[in-house]
Amino acid sequence: MRNVAVLVVVLVVVVLLLNGCGVDGAPERPGAPAAGLSLSGHAVVGVQTGL
Fold first, then answer.
1. In the predicted model, is pLDDT for residue 18 greater than 90?
2. What is the DSSP string of 1-51?
């Protein structure tokens, strides 16, 4: 049973690595943004311990 769990973990890691390295095709440059549309802002990711 332990071997099956290890195999599943290894397969998941391999899939994630292949997904991240561009195995789905060559990288493509994004198209030009639509005229009159601008995105800006500030994002924060974290954990807040006190409320």
1. no
2. -HHHHHHHHHHHHHHHHHHHTTTTS---PPPPPPTT---------------
